[in-house]
Design goal:
The termini are far apart. A four-stranded mixed sheet has the order 2-1-3-4. The longest helix is centred in the N-terminal third of the chain and has 17 residues. The protein is built from four helices and four strands; from the N terminus they run H-H-E-E-H-E-H-E.
């Protein structure tokens, strides 16, 4: 039995996958950092009546920095909102200066889910409500 070593088989050069994996990993990290995972929604803005006459009949609520809604007339917020929904009364939400606008938008969403039809948001308003 003799082995014929005269013909050498051509071997394919080995391709290292390490560099390919590195490039794919860098691309994955890049796209994860650049992507935005926030959900953007559209808020319907309706121009209300001008002047103080449009605000006079509205229920006035204050959103404090701790996230608490307080009625301006000292009434319990739940009762005031129930009356506003029953009477189809507009609601104005006044934000204290330190309240982020996103918290105000969240309050608008909550009020809409409770059935309030007309809600206005007044950011950083100077008001006499304590």
């Amino acid at each position: 039995m003799a082995f014929d070593f005269s013909e050498e088989r051509r071997r394919r050069p080995k391709v290292s996958l390490t560099s390919l994996i590195d490039v794919i990993f860098i691309l994955i990290v890049f796209f994860m950092l650049v992507s935005s995972f926030s959900q953007y929604r559209v808020i319907d803005l309706v121009k209300g009546p001008g002047g103080a006459s449009g605000q006079a009949s509205a229920l006035r609520l204050v959103l404090r920095a701790d996230g608490q809604l307080v009625a301006s007339d000292g009434q319990a917020v739940d009762e005031a909102l129930a009356q506003a929904v029953a009477n189809r009364q507009a609601v104005s939400v006044f934000l204290e200066r330190s309240v982020p606008i996103q918290r105000g938008v969240d309050a608008l969403d909550r009020l809409k889910s409770l059935g309030v039809e007309a809600v206005s948001l007044v950011p950083e308003a100077r008001h006499d409500i304590q």
